[in-house]
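Q: I'm teaching a short session on how sequence maps to structure, and I want students to see two examples side by side rather than one. Could you give me a first protein with its sequence written out and its structure tokens following it? Keep the formatting plain so it prints cleanly on a handout.
A: Of course. Example one:
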Amino acid sequence: MNGDVLTGRCLCGGVRYRVGPRLYPPTLCHCESCRRAAGAHAVGWLTVARADFVLTAGELRELESSPGVHRAFCPRCGAPVTYRNARRAGEIDVTLGTLDEPSRAAPVDHIWMEDAPAWDRPGDGLPQYPRGRDP
């Protein structure tokens, strides 16, 4: 790993990790699945190679939230930490909210706005996509 290494932890501190470097710019996802998994209107994500996600303390528990999609969380405090999709087997997404220095991974856009509630209309000027990012 290089100078792009970031660290993070869950709410209770039982799970700690290090990641890097980023594969894509961070994003804010507004899809229904992320909203329900996090109990929030959007979830910030950072994508890294699976090999570059290293647990340094504790263990994660996983839930297959839909076919081929695995969400991992701290088994003690329930904080959502990662997302894996079988269609992107070599990648893993990490929640921006669990980073020790989230300001080092500012989101550049909003995805899955077609799933966002009517009251969730970001005014930050970042690009907004109905589904994923444009190809």
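Q: Perfect. Now a second example for contrast.
A: Example two:
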Amino acid sequence: MKSTGFFAEFKKFISRGNVLDMAVGIAAGAAFTAIINSFVNDIINPIIGVLIGGVDFSELTIVLKHATETTPEVAIRYGMFINSIISFIIISFALFLMVKAFNRLAEAKKKEEKAAPAVPPAPPADIQLLTEIRDLLKKEN
């Protein structure tokens, strides 16, 4: 029985190669994000913390309600927000550098293609034969 409608369309979508490419990109992006987060949290933030007097951004909070024996603390963790902003800036900068490098490679390839003269493809065998016959007829006349 042939499936139609929504599920047939979904099957067609999921079986295309683009979905696999997208999944690989998402997995690579997640790994890249983990590396950047570690870089920010474990390297950049401690350096910035030392420079501004030993402050650990992840500990910066505004306590709205202190913890009691029965309820946890309610706080605005703006230090974590600062960490996220720093991560975003570093990720954006890294992506910018990658896109810039890709554009340079693409531009160099275009220049290379323009510099090399394009050799026209050889005509098919029947056209070559007709050309030879024409040239021979011109010589005879």
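Q: What should students look for in example two?
A: Point them to this: Residues 113 and 120 are 14 Å apart (CA to CA). Also worth mentioning: The domain at 6-140 is CATH 1.10.1200.120 (Non-ribosomal Peptide Synthetase Peptidyl Carrier Protein; Chain A).
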